[in-house]
């Protein structure tokens, strides 16, 4: 059984519109991003002293696929601070027969044995099925939800 975290949803927008939204990371995940998120290369994400990561964009296939490699990661709230390091995040975009577009998000390497799994899967659910989907369908996402997640799980800022 595939243990990697995965979720998907379908929208009326075109694969090109979906691709544009995914690569607009500040529009759906966080405005606390350094670097370009729409070309191959590196960008950095951080939320206070709780979560920091360096993400390498390794694949950009317009209208079809986006792949990120987590080159470095730090979590303040788990024993193994680097739990995401060397995992991959894959966005697959598929045009369906009914004209709709399916978005499949998979965090390869984010598995239930990870201490961060409950927080991370909940967070990805909020960001992918909520914020990214809203950015695609309504033109506006809700980035910067980390505060809400931190509060929900009682994660203290060191």
Care to describe what's here?
With 158 residues, the protein is an alpha+beta fold. The chain has a single domain (10-153), classed as START domain (Alpha-D-Glucose-1,6-Bisphosphate, Chain A, domain 4), CATH 3.30.530.20. The protein contains 4 helices and 7 strands, in the order E-H-H-E-E-E-E-E-E-H-H. It has helices at 15-22, 25-28, 117-138, 146-153, and strands at 5-11, 33-34, 41-47, 51-61, 65-75, 88-95, 101-108. A 7-stranded antiparallel beta sheet has the order 1-7-6-5-4-3-2. A hairpin with a 3-residue loop joins strand 4 (51-61) and strand 5. It starts with a strand and ends in a 5-residue tail after the last helix. The mean pLDDT is 95.
Task: Give a concise summary.
The protein contains 4 helices and 7 strands, in the order βααββββββαα. The chain has 158 residues and is an alpha+beta fold.
Feature tags:
158 residues; alpha+beta; Alpha-D-Glucose-1,6-Bisphosphate, Chain A, domain 4; seven-stranded antiparallel β-sheet; 34% strand; globular; START-like_dom_sf; ASHA1/2-like_C
């Amino acid at each position: 059984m595939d243990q990697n975290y995965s979720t998907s949803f379908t929208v009326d927008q075109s694969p090109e519109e979906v691709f544009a939204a995914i690569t607009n990371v500040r529009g759906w995940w966080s405005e606390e991003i350094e670097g370009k998120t729409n070309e191959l290369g590196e960008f950095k994400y951080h939320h206070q002293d709780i979560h920091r990561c360096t993400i390498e964009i390794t694949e950009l296939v317009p209208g079809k696929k986006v792949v990120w490699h987590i080159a470095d990661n730090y979590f303040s709230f788990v024993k193994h601070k680097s739990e995401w390091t060397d995992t991959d995040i894959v966005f697959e975009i598929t045009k369906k027969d009914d004209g709709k577009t399916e978005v499949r998000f998979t965090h390869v390497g984010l598995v239930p044995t990870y201490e961060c799994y409950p927080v991370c899967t909940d967070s990805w659910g909020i960001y992918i099925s909520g914020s990214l989907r809203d950015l695609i369908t309504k033109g506006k996402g809700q980035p910067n939800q980390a505060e809400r997640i931190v509060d929900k799980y009682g994660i203290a800022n060191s």
